[in-house]
Design brief:
The chain is globular, with a radius of gyration of 21 Å. It has helices at about 15-25, 70-85, 110-120, 135-155, 220-225, 240-250, 250-260, and strands at about 1-5, 30-35, 55, 65-70, 90-95, 125-130, 160-165, 175-180, 185-195, 200-210, 225-230. A 9-stranded mixed β-sheet has the order 3-4-2-1-5-6-7-11-8, sandwiched between helices. By secondary structure, the chain is an alpha/beta fold. The longest helix has 19 residues, at about 135-155. The protein binds manganese (II) ion.
């Protein structure tokens, strides 16, 4: 099995290397990741600017690693299109320093990297942990490695796209494993105003809403001490108000034209 490992915390991040090291026990691993911290850039790609790729000396023997002067999505697109000599069987992104729950998936670079693989027809997994130190990284890496091993044996579905979040608990205290859905209204964004002596500035802050009532959500699962696995897909369009829009826009183009061509 060939696995591309990427992340958004940068190519030297501990979480990435612990994950790569564990996965290399069961697969051929190549690391291609941003050369610097790129958290919360979502699926941003770099256009109209050249991208440099630098082979770096691996932090674990036998794992080829490249740093990309770009975003997580840039890294995955470059890896799958150019850097990897052969087709990857799986893209794994992480382990992120910090959970990616609910609406986080829309801004997360960790999920963004996985999404870039998924959009190109590669099965993809994003992994995040609320507590980013040892031994929590190792538990998460071991868990993902066991899961990937099972996936490999069962045959990995090409449309696989998973968002995995580990709870902030030592392994013996983790209660269970829940297959979840994304929590909606999962975060509160606030704007704080400051002044630097010359000009006002604003700081956006983001806080997760832990008190989820819906027991099917990722936030609830992690908050209750479970590992959360959310299967994701990519249908952003909303079909519900289509009829409403049809009625609303009836004759709208004619109205626009009639203003110009009487
Ligand atoms: Mn990150």
């Amino acid at each position: 099995m060939k696995i591309l490992v990427s992340n958004d915390d940068g190519v030297y991040a501990d979480g990435l290397w612990i994950l790569a090291r564990h996965l290399s026990q069961i697969a051929e691993v190549t690391v291609v990741a941003p050369d610097r911290e790129q958290s919360a850039v979502g699926t941003a790609v770099t256009l109209r600017k050249p991208l440099r790729v630098q082979k770096i000396s691996p932090l674990h023997p036998g794992i080829e690693a490249y740093g990309v002067e770009g975003t997580p999505s840039d890294s995955v697109i470059l890896a799958l299109g150019k850097v990897l000599p052969e087709r990857a069987d799986l893209v794994v992104s992480g382990i992120n320093q910090g959970s990616n729950l609910g609406e986080d998936v829309l801004i997360s670079g960790t999920v963004g990297a996985a999404l870039s693989g998924y959009l190109r027809g590669f099965p993809a997994i994003a992994v995040s942990t609320g507590k980013w130190c040892e031994p929590y990284f190792s538990y998460a890496a071991e868990f993902v490695t066991l899961l990937v091993k099972r996936l490999g044996a069962a045959g990995i579905p090409s449309n696989l796209f998973l968002n995995i979040n580990m709870p902030d608990l030592p392994i013996q205290d983790i209660k269970g494993l829940k297959i979840t859905r994304l929590a909606m209204k999962s975060h509160v964004n606030t704007v704080e105003e400051g002044h630097d002596g010359r000009k006002a500035y604003y700081m956006l802050t983001r806080q997760s809403v832990n008190s989820q009532e819906d027991k099917r959500t990722d936030i609830w699962a992690v908050d209750q001490g479970n590992i959360s696995i959310t299967p994701l897909h990519l249908f952003l369009e909303n079909r519900i108000p289509a009829r409403l829009l049809e009625n609303l826009t009836l004759g709208l183009l004619d109205e626009l034209k009639s203003r110009h061509f009487q």
